[in-house]
């Protein structure tokens, strides 16, 4: 008698939160009843495709190898039963193949009762700033001494990832101030995205600058690299030195500003989601140009990204009748970006690392007095995918621990 639960088609851990109690079937449908009374239906074609055996999934990679169209016919169910271990056996015709399904995995993928499978990993919380507000701040002083992907690293990273996913921003404190250490810190989350400014870029006043960022002048609220078809999802800024007068950091939740615009001036909001602006960074040796609305929504009308950087906007090339409404909407937005209630302001301390969603947050800085001391930040980019993947790995590790403590 089998008492072990079967493999799942992935590398994840799926604790059994309710047991299979009853099963019935028709040729194209399996219906199960769980110990908490829930009923779930699964299509035969869906079950066949999501089996975990070696004709469906390559055991070495857990990637699918089955081509559904190569089956001798539409999978139909000839038998279904629950075994002593609590797994579901299903017999498929015309293949005459008997396959076994893990109840925890089945329950976790119950599309018949699913809420929103694409819901954010962490609920998105829009925020306003104002005097005295500061970013979520965490002591990360031991981060580089922890074992990669171990529990101690997770204890530092998990709340940081939650803040970035939910609020678009976190400040880690107490990190080393050695130049270049940002790369090792960033790799604890995921691979860095290189750009024409390098893998890491130095934000400090330089002679012969190729960006306003590399001067001591004030920078208006902006997202970085809106000039790219896919502008970086994350930015990290790591403070190595800061002894200048001025140069305070300013952060705004671009989604909160966009939602406020949607409420206050729906026409301006609609215009900014429609008109495609030109974003251009034409330097001496590179020439990046992209056209995009300033506010982009996903298929469901939720905010996907904002692209705002006045110093990287090229000449507007919109339909003639759109030009004045576009500039009116832009100026309405620009006035909102100056409202102090949207902004949080803080001063970087050496060892601070601010991680923020570069397609959601706007960052700015006050001018600083270049001769009053040194201000040196190192920065890098990453994609939102890396934060999501790292956070799913945290969730997987938590599920695995729950599994081993309940066995
Ligand atoms: Fe920037």
Automatic annotation (TrEMBL):
The keyword Metal-binding is annotated on this UniProt entry: yes
Transmembrane segment boundaries: none
InterPro entries, A to Z: AlphaKG_dependent_hydroxylases, GBBH-like_N_sf, TauD-like_sf, TauD/TfdA-like
TauD/TfdA-like domain location: 157-381
GO molecular function: 2-oxoglutarate-dependent dioxygenase activity; metal ion binding
Protein's recorded name: Taurine catabolism dioxygenase TauD
Keyword Hydrolase recorded: no
GO biological process annotation, one example: carnitine biosynthetic process
Family per similarity comment: Belongs to the gamma-BBH/TMLD family.
Domain of life: Bacteria
Keywords: Dioxygenase, Iron, Metal-binding, Oxidoreductase
Known cofactor(s): Fe(2+)
